[in-house]
């Protein structure tokens, strides 16, 4: 397909952008389905042992690696990371691949001169459900003084353990670093592909496992098997601030100096990176004026969008399937892109697609708490408090604002306890159902249990779907009143018979689109297929290229005029969702590619008029770093 023919399929109604081809096939805008079979892949883990100035374990040492997955067994038992016949469908991720086991796992670190850990001499034991619910997690801001002191004592004792102990605080932080900053890898000789527990359906169950063993270790350290990890209750107005328990800097093991200090006593913004740079922070204990009420209401609507409107079904809420071969769709994408761009090769789509549980409030608060960068006028380095990423560069969004260092902040664990709680609420009170796919249910990871005599435990996703199997639950009283359930979305502009006519397309586009902050892109006349029985309509944007070390976000709205789009937010009925990631590094540098899948049936019902067969998809960049989009948005049934 030459450039002229590509332009015939790509037009914009406001700012440079382009709609996708119609869902019906035509000679000018073809769409093909490709199938590919790939050879078996090998799983690798990079690891090294080095400590920073705070005594944190930079990466697991020989005797700690098993806590990161039993000789990299975080991937052991995970089906679908090896080979298999994969259908290159724009929505469907992949079919089940071969299981990955310890026979395929090796460890190497070609970028650093540190030896790999030997295999663990101890075989993991299988997890056994706990016989009773002994632990009840409570909101951190409602803890009694006695419980606060108990929590501090447990953290202090965990920090006092030698870094080589697999349940030390340093080792716990290293687990998240290794799994989330590119140290677990497969097929490094050929493709050097990283494995990450974010950006897919692995996110929620893996973090539930991780927090569970962390919580148990805290209780063991203080001899209290009823001790439960407090959660940061940021989905309720009374909890929309960093809990004071974590802010006191005097002899407090819960304090972390690597936080953005001006924000800590302000009302959190669960849609962070949406507000203008000069927008004032709202004091949590200040006057409850209109600005305070507006931010609190926007926060509640963010959770409503995350849990209900954008979380209908497991794929919407928990994320898409993790595919073993990141290039399974490369052939199709390249062919389509080359036809549009006159032979130029496309960027590959690694099919990373988060669920609403991961990409919304969770991501916003990581960035909200972490530092915004080095001191003014200075570059990021070890001298300015930066943390060294796996790419060899320093990052100053630490601790919470950078995936490689998030686990170093005790607040991280209470933050994720609330993420876990919202999954629990979705599964129980809201009636959500997880995946039935054995590939998900039988995925397994290995963690250490038992402070006195640590032993590796193999645990599957099916083991953690009910928190009662893990011996904990959440404070029932806090779940009786969920204020975000009552959020009422309002339209930003009129729709239906009262809506003004949409402007006709007036500018042709060539992909990739380059998204820049403040420059709205309206992709006009995106075809909307009729809804099929038993299916949901999704808006898919593939081929999203971004710099993982930077803050990245763009919002997606439907049928909003370009000159009004900067005002759109989760409190509006036109809001479809966002692409947002927590900064991380990439070994060797460079960019990452992903995609976004948004479930939009409710949005379409609100914004489409009778007889409409197309909508305008509006991309609203919110961050400074350039984001490229290599493929047009499409709306499909799935």
From TrEMBL:
Family stated for the protein in its record: Belongs to the tyrosinase family.
Transmembrane regions listed in the UniProt entry: none
Segments for region (Disordered): 337-356
Domain called Tyrosinase copper-binding: residue spans: 409-420
Coiled-coil region list: none
Needed cofactors: Cu(2+)
Compositionally biased tracts (Basic residues): 337-350
Keywords assigned by UniProt, alphabetized: Copper, Disulfide bond, Metal-binding, Oxidoreductase, Thioether bond
Name assigned to this protein: Polyphenol oxidase I, chloroplastic-like
MF GO annotations: catechol oxidase activity; metal ion binding
């Amino acid at each position: 397909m030459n450039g002229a023919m590509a332009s015939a399929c790509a037009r914009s109604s406001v700012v440079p952008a382009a709609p996708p081809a119609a869902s019906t096939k035509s000679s000018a805008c073809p769409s093909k389905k490709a199938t590919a079979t790939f050879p078996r892949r090998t799983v690798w883990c990079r690891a090294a042992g080095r400590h920073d100035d705070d005594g944190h374990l930079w990466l697991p040492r020989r005797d700690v690696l098993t806590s990161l997955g039993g000789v990299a067994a975080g991937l052991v038992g995970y089906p679908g990371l090896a080979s298999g016949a994969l259908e290159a469908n724009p929505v469907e991720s992949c079919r089940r691949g071969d299981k990955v086991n310890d026979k395929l796992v090796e460890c190497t670190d070609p970028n650093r001169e540190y030896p790999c850990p030997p295999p663990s001499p101890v075989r993991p034991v299988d997890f056994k459900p706990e016989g009773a619910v002994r632990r009840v997690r409570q909101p951190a801001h409602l803890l009694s003084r006695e419980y606060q002191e108990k929590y501090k004592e447990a953290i202090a004792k965990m920090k006092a353990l030698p870094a080589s102990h697999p349940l030390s605080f340093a080792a716990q932080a290293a687990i998240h670093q290794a799994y989330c900053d590119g140290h677990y890898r497969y097929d490094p000789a050929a493709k050097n592909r990283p494995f990450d527990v974010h950006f897919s359906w692995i996110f929620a169950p893996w973090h539930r496992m991780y927090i569970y063993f962390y919580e148990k270790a805290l209780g063991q350290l203080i001899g209290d098997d009823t001790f439960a990890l407090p959660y940061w209750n940021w989905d309720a107005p009374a909890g929309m601030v960093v809990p004071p328990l974590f802010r006191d800097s005097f002899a407090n093991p819960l304090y972390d100096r690597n936080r953005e200090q001006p924000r800590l006593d302000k009302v959190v913004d669960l849609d962070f990176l949406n507000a203008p740079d000069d927008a004032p922070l709202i004091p949590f204990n200040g006057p409850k004026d209109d600005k305070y009420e507006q931010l609190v209401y926007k926060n509640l609507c963010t959770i409503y969008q995350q849990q209900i409107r954008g979380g209908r079904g497991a794929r919407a809420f928990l994320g898409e399937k993790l595919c073993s071969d990141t290039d399974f769709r490369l052939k199709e994408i390249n062919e389509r892109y080359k036809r549009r761009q006159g032979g130029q090769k496309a960027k590959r789509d690694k099919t990373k697609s988060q669920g609403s549980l991961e990409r919304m409030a969770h991501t916003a608060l990581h960035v909200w708490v972490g530092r915004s960068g080095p001191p003014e006028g200075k570059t990021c380095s070890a001298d300015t408090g930066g943390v060294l990423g796996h790419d060899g560069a320093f990052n100053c969004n630490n601790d919470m604002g950078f995936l490689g260092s998030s686990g170093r902040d005790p607040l991280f664990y209470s933050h994720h306890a609330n993420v876990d709680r919202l999954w629990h609420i979705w599964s129980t009170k809201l009636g959500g159902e997880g995946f039935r796919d054995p590939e998900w249910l039988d995925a397994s990871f290995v963690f250490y249990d038992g402070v006195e005599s640590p032993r590796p435990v193999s645990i599957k996703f099916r083991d953690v779907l009910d928190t009662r199997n893990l011996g904990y639950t959440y404070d029932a009283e806090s779940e009786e009143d969920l204020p975000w359930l009552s959020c009422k979305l309002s339209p930003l502009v009129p729709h239906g018979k009262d809506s003004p006519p949409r402007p006709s397309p007036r500018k042709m586009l060539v992909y990739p689109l380059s998204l820049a902050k403040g420059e709205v892109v309206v992709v006009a006349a995106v075809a909307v297929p009729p809804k099929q029985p038993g299916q949901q309509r999704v808006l898919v944007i593939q081929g999203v290229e971004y710099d993982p070390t930077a803050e990245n976000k763009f919002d997606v709205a439907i049928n909003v005029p370009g000159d009004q789009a900067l005002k759109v937010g989760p409190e509006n009925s036109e809001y479809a969702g966002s692409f947002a990631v927590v900064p991380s590094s990439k070994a060797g540098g460079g960019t990452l590619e992903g995609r976004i899948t948004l479930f939009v049936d409710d949005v379409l019902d609100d914004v489409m008029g009778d007889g409409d067969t197309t909508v305008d998809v509006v991309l609203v960049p919110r961050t400074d770093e350039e984001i490229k989009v290599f493929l047009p948005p499409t709306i499909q049934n799935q």
